[in-house]
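Cont'd.
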Amino acid sequence: MNDHRDVPAIRFTRCSKAFGETVVLDDFSWDVPVGRRVAILGPSGSGKTTLLRLVMTIEQLDAGTIDVFGRPIAAGRDAPAAERLSERQVREVRRDVGMVFQQFNLFPHMTALENVIEAPVRVLGKHKSEAAEHGRQILRQVGLQGKEDAHPRKLSGGQQQRVAIARALAMEPRIMLFDEVTSALDPELVGEVLEVIRDLAEHSSMTMLLVTHEIGFARDVSDEVLFMEHGRVVESGPPEDVLGNPAEERTRSFLRAVGPH
Amino acid sequence: MRVDYEYALRVLPVLLRGAVTTFQATIGGMALALVLGLVFVVLLRSKNVLISYPTRAVLEFVRGTPLLIQLFFLFYVLPEWGIRLEALGTGIFALGLHYSTYIAEVYRAGIESVPRGQWEASTALSFSKLDTWRRIVLPQAVITVLPMLGNYLVAMFKETPLLATITVIEMLGAGLSAAASSYRYFEVFTLIGLIFLAMSLPAGALVRKFEAINKRYA
């Protein structure tokens, strides 16, 4: 990495996004330093997921800009022509970002290994055998050795989500976005997925944004907690402050509502 | 009525030669319909209304007019404009065009059945548009619609006798000319029916096989 220390991994500048009448992000500005692990909390509809989807360019910004390692990845619809990004530019910058979805979104017609190596082969132009070797290694890393040739429908939810994590990792992103990755899982399968992410946080230098409802997990893994509501930041800071001793009443009542942790 | 088995045996090879043409027309027509259907669905899904609306109009027009009329038009009118195709080629073109309009709708349904998350994952992995279609969306869409495509294959197969009306010597054409001199209509048409049945049964089995594949992926 040759980034200047002061170039953030992700920079949101005056970002706004609405779905019809519902404002999900309202003049939102925020820098995520390189290597930071941020847990994003908040009631549903607070804009947390949209935040990730905007970085991933799955949703289109209404206004503002998002930069990844100093390079623009998204600009609002109202941006002047000169600031509009070409599809190629976006794809280039986007390779630094990986995402894991709540519903896994694995490719059902491919085996676990095929899911993992498809993008390295197609997008990075890696040789298939090289990608497969790397893919096997990553699947081992997430505890799925022996499942390489299984199709997603033959795997449990927890295993599927670990394949999805492996698939994102295979692109060797510098930023990982985790969007409520345990919300669709049976309770007994949550642990194995969180364990993989914990391990990842410990053994890599990736920047991570984690939208989650697992407060305990957020406390363990993150070094910053962002609490959002109605598309705005209510408060943010180290987990021991925001989770242990929240300054805002909104945060306190949310933490009470999600229960003991 | 007396069945002339000896005549039946004699006329069988003639009919089977016709069946080869029937087979060619079906395969050719289906291949064209599959490709043309894909072109139509891409145009239909265009965000540009100057492309999608006219495409929609063409599809409605082709679907809303009888195949027989289309055959006659292509066979008798096009040569007046200097476009001359041999009879079988015209037949294959008409079958392919006609069925492509139905198959475009089948593809559309298949594409819409692919969950949004598949597109989103493709975006997140930075696949190109082409790769997203080729590697992610179409394989899933096609698996979903294989049984429907199979049904259209059988339907098209059973419509090939229409080609006899534009001088293609497929099974019906061959049978008509044989019966014209022998007057053994019973033998000729019974045999044609049996050959059609013998050919559609495996196709029907294929459709059920597709349905089984489909279930495995569901």
